[in-house]
Amino acid sequence: MAFSYCKVFGKDKVIFATKEDHSTPSTVELPAPEPPQGLITKDGNINWSCPCLGGMATGPCGVDFREAFSCFHYSEAEPKGSDCYEAFRKMQDCFQQYPTVYNKANGGDDDDDALGDVMSSDSSTNIKDVDELTGGAGAAAAATASDSHTTTTNAVSKVE
Amino acid sequence: MVKKRTLEARSKLQANKYPNQNACMKVAQSVEFVPDMDDDVGAGYADTRPSSTAQEVLKSSQCEKPPALAVDKSDDICKDPCEEFHRLRRETTIARGGGGDACGGGGEDDDKKKAEEKLKQLKLRCILGALAALVAGGLFAWLWSRQNKDGAGDGESPEDALKRAKISGFITTPSSSDKLPAHVPYLIVGGGTAAFSAFRAIKSNDAKAKVLMISNEFRKPYMRPPLSKELWYTPNPNEDPIKDYRFKQWTGSERSLYFEPEEFFVDPEKLDESVNGGIAVAQGFAVKKVDAENRIVTLSDGYQITYDTCLIATGCSPKNLPMFRDAPPSVQEKIMVYRTPDDFDRLRRYALQKRSITIVGNGFVGSELACSLAHYSKENNGGKVYQVFQESGNMSKVLPNYLSEWTTQKMKAQGVCVITDASIRTATRDESQLKLELNNGMSLLTDIVVVCVGCSPNTSMAGASKLEVDRSLGGFVVNAELEARRNLFVAGDASCFYDPLLGRRRVEHHDHSVVSGRLAGENMTGAKKPYTHQSMFWSDLGPEIGYEGIGLVDSSLPTVGVFAIPSNNDKRADSHTEVRADANADEQLKTATGPEMSCDPSEEPNYGKGVIFYLQNEKIVGILLWNLFNRIGLARTIINQNKSYDDLNEVAKLFEIHA
């Protein structure tokens, strides 16, 4: 049975540890990691820097996206977002002008922004909001042509 | 891209990347570099091949001082007059020293005279040859540029021709600098990762921001890490260049090297009038001066642009070695550095032609490229891959010595012919190949040399701009908020910044460009934040080695490495165990066993998986995660503690190295 042992090469030390040796809890205590900032800040605002947005807020339709998403996020209508029809249509119109930017994620890769930080954040709790947005967008877009619905869903699914 | 480098995902990726690794290992053993070539096998092997494709390592004896037995052979190999010139010179010196004479009998003095005469003739011929080459080259270049002016491509559409001309550097975007706006709110000098990351941050914080990037490249912003990794594992054999430089990510999905497609960007001539702002890239322009006081940037052609806030993200340029830089053009045309997609295209063409490729240098780019090329060569039945460097192992600036040497063994097993402890004394050229004479007496025939010996920050505008450059680290000196002067920031490779935790630093890594670019962008929109989020780095060296690091991962610091002993079950499940138990590394380890630690010499050292702590004044200042993924956040937390620990094994437990 293997047991832990050590070697020294000048200034460099090496410890070989068995699974058993490392099965007891560590005596080192670390502070709880700071919760990374997600899509929605503590005070309920939208964090446009969230890597989870995958570049949506910075692209050529970033301004329209923000307006639509803000409208939805702060909407008090029933169902939520149903008062955002205009904003969403504007956003969709913009998306259609940039097919290579807003339709590229066909492979379903949600991690398209290569600038995303390694550990940053997983704002999965906040993603719900975007999910709702998808629904809201659907509701809002239901009145319009069906293909625009798809566009929105695609675009927003990129956000997730 | 790196975001989800989980162990599971990575193993899957590695399995995809190297479907038949065991077969590869076997091949590798036969390829191993043999320094002793006094056996006939080497010479005979070289002899059986046409001289133009000789791809073997040759000992000096084969070219410079052929043993009696091999005279004819050496003549075959040394066809080029310049080559013969060197052989002769070597022989003359040997003859003078009274040593053995290889190239025919006769009195010594006579021979010497003859040799000297011949030498003179050869010299003349070499010079004439070089002149002829220059004239021919000039003519060719002239014809070429003429053709391009005519805009004539064979069967190419005008748009394609234009696009190609733009990328190959004939046409700037816009066509002249006076079409650029005279004033922009946000100006970024440079068009790489740090620049693009800064743009993202600016636009996130200022929705309608108008950002102008001035890049001396002829491309839109792109990322570099895949150039030495993923792109080599993405076949697309019929594409040259690969369209949009698509490569397969670990997820299996493809993406482009470019951060965003063309449509994402605003035309520089329309930036001023754009209602919602955006990013425009002026391609092919260089900046010679930044006047921080008056907020004016001057392009190399004298055109001036005023700004509200500016970022310098000029990156760095690959270094060359003096002996290559000063070499004749015939040698230089076989030497390249490696940093851009154009370099990738060029090297890929060589690899496709099954050329033998020699990498000089043992750092990130050189070592990753060596592994990728060895893999590529194996897939395509290509040429040999050599890696030559002065140090005793790969990645010696990062990895502690024992791990560096272990890594080199692994790379050899992948088919890279690694020649350690060797520097290149001279490089000469015959008709088709380069001959590298090494300081250990060996020489190496190769088709192409890729110099990967680091890069130096692009700070040429510092003088005219009256900006401070750090004397020892290089790069523009900035404070903890990455500010050089008011409203003037520096990020990425060119930034020598003050890290409040770890002191003054300059970092050349992709993630650092992302992190520092983002911080600069935030501060350009008024955030006033210091550098607190430690950037990380990662690297992959073939199927068995992937690592990530954070903080000061500097092998000159004392280190403590904690490695997992695989349980018996793991061993059986692990198909690479026999490869890992490397005889060489094993012996070295056993002899170096320290006196004060209790050791079990019967145990085979296995550096398969572990965590290494880098210490400064007893505190943990750097952490390397060796084949451990998805733990960089924990490592960052520990670095931020800035503490010393009595028992680092206890800290290592947090990393669950056996998981």
Automatic annotation (TrEMBL), chain A:
A single GO molecular function term of this UniProt record: protein-disulfide reductase activity
Protein name in UniProt: CHCH domain-containing protein
Start and end residues of each CHCH domain: 61-97
UniProt record, GO biological process: protein import into mitochondrial intermembrane space
Stretches for region Disordered: 105-160
GO cellular component: mitochondrial intermembrane space
Compositionally biased spans, kind Low complexity: 139-160
Keyword Cytoplasm among UniProt keywords: no
Domain of life: Eukaryota
Compartment list: Mitochondrion
Keywords annotated in UniProt: Disulfide bond, Mitochondrion, Oxidoreductase, Protein transport, Redox-active center, Translocation, Transport
Record organism: Drosophila navojoa
UniProtKB/TrEMBL annotation, chain B:
Domain Mitochondrial apoptosis-inducing factor C-terminal: 520-641
Transmembrane segments: 122-144
Any GO BP: apoptotic process
Single GO MF annotation: NAD(P)H oxidase H2O2-forming activity
Transmembrane as UniProt keyword: yes
Gene3D superfamilies documented for this protein: 3.30.390.30, FAD/NAD(P)-binding domain (3.50.50.60)
One Pfam family per UniProt: AIF_C
Cofactor(s) it depends on: FAD
CC terms in the record's Gene Ontology section: mitochondrion
Subcellular location: Mitochondrion
Top-level taxon of origin: Eukaryota
Ranges of residues in domain FAD/NAD(P)-binding: 186-513
Coarse class of the protein's main subcellular location: mitochondrion
Catalytic activity line of the entry: A + NADH + H(+) = AH2 + NAD(+)
Biased composition (Polar residues): 49-61
Keyword set, alphabetical order: Apoptosis, FAD, Flavoprotein, Membrane, Mitochondrion, NAD, Oxidoreductase, Transit peptide, Transmembrane, Transmembrane helix
Signal peptide stretch: none
UniProt region (Disordered), positions on chain: 41-61
Family assignment from sequence similarity: Belongs to the FAD-dependent oxidoreductase family.
Family annotation (PANTHER family): APOPTOSIS-INDUCING FACTOR 1, APOPTOSIS-INDUCING FACTOR 1, MITOCHONDRIAL
Protein name: FAD/NAD(P)-binding domain-containing protein
Organism per entry: Drosophila navojoa (Fruit fly)
